[in-house]
Amino acid sequence: MTSEMAGQRNESEQERADRNFVELLQGARVAVTGVQVLFAFLLTVPFSSGFSRLDQADRWLYYAALVSAAIASICYIAPTAQHRVLFRQGRKETLVRRSNLYGIFGALALAVSMTTSTMFVIDYLFQATLAWITAGVLAALALWTWFAQPGLTRNGQSSDRSSAEGNSVSSSED
User: φ and ψ at 4, to 5 degrees?
Assistant: First the structure.
């Protein structure tokens, strides 16, 4: 078994930090597009004719959706902005750690924004009960797929079938 197959790469710490940072940015690119579309949509909602008819509860839902989309945008943009400020300062490992945390916070904020946005629209179109049920299912799905399941895998409490069969390639750095 080669060292790469065993989860070890033949790279320096700087090369690993560079690779990790590029991988983090690539992951953020996927999410940031969705955040930008959602945020742009949310920014236009108050200017529609029906917005004035919303009750206070729906206005608070809108507020939560809008602010959490803004927070997600800030978190997903932060690694790129910090990279520009810290360029050639030899702080890539610090930037990688921060970027990972910003990615987690951004994903949490995105989950809140998606859930509250959906709840907001469903409440407007149908009824509060259906909105609450749908939001609960969406929140649970996001929390499970984005955080709980990988958290269990990370802590060794869960494994995929390929891991159990010994067919997976793992890396202690990812």
Answer: -70, -40
> pTM score, two decimals?
0.78
CA 82 – CA 14 distance, rounded (Å) = 18
Position 72 scores a pLDDT of 95
What percentage of the chain reaches a pLDDT higher than 70? 86
Cβ-based neighbour number of residue 21 at 10 Å: 18
Distance in angstroms (rounded) separating the CA atoms of residues 39 and 108: 15
33: tokens are 């597009």
Of 22, 17, 34, 27, the closest CA to residue 104 belongs to 27
Exposed / middle / buried, residue 110 (Cβ in 10 Å: 0-12, 13-18, 19+): buried
